[in-house]
Amino acid sequence: MTYIFFKRALDLMGSVLGIILSLPVMLVTVLLIKLDSPGPIFADTPMRVGRNGKLFKMYKFRSMVVGAHDMLQKDPQLLKQYKQNSYKIQDDPRVTRVGKFIRKVSIDELPQLFNIVKGEMSLVGPRAYYPFELEEQQEEYPQTEKFVKIILQAKPGLTGVWQTSGRSEINFDKRVQMDATYVERKSIIFDILLVLKTIPAVLARRGAV
C-alpha cells in the first residue's frame, strides 16, 4: 500500500508539472499539425490494454495521415512489415512531415500526461499494448503468458524499462520479461531513476521510428 500511495503521488506531481512545463511545446505542436495536414489533433488509434485488462483511450498527437489504420489493413505488404517489426514500420509512408519529427523526439507522447492525471497510466510502467498485439504475440511466444499476467497488474507507463533500453529494437518476448521484472520490483527509487534515464534516451532517439 505504501508503494501504491507514493507512486500515485509521484504520478500526480510529475504529470501536472510536466503539463505545465510542456504546454508551450504542445501548443506549437497543435499548430504545426493543423498546418501540415488535414484532420484532428489527436491520433485515432485502437484502444490500449490497461491495468487488470481494462481498455482505455491513450492520448497521442496525430503523426499520421487520417485513415492510417484503414490504410494498413488494406495493404498486405505494409501489414506484413508491421507485424514482423514489433508493430512498427520503418519509413512508414503514412507518417506526415510533422509526424516524423514529433515521433523522433517523442513529442507525440506528451498528451499521455493527461492519461496519468486520470489514473489510466503511470509515469513509469510497462508498455501499453493493443489487445490484438497481446493476443497475436502470445500465440507466437507461448512462454510469455506468465509475464503478461504480471504486467496487467500494473498501469501502463509513459516511460519504463523497455522505453529506455532500445524501444522498437527489443522483441516482444524480451520486452514483456523486462516489464514483468519491473512490476514485481515495486521501487519508487527505481521509478525516479527511470524517469531521469528517459531524458538522454529520448535525446539519443534510441529505437524511435
TrEMBL record:
The chain crosses the membrane at residues 12-33. One of its GO terms (molecular function) is phosphotransferase activity, for other substituted phosphate groups. Residues 7-203 form the Bacterial sugar transferase domain. It comes from the Bacteria. Keywords: Membrane, Transferase, Transmembrane, Transmembrane helix. It holds the Pfam family Bac_transf. InterPro entries: Bact_transf. PANTHER family: COLANIC BIOSYNTHESIS UDP-GLUCOSE LIPID CARRIER TRANSFERASE, SLL5057 PROTEIN. Belongs to the bacterial sugar transferase family. This is Undecaprenyl-phosphate galactose phosphotransferase. It comes from Candidatus Daviesbacteria bacterium GW2011_GWA2_42_7.
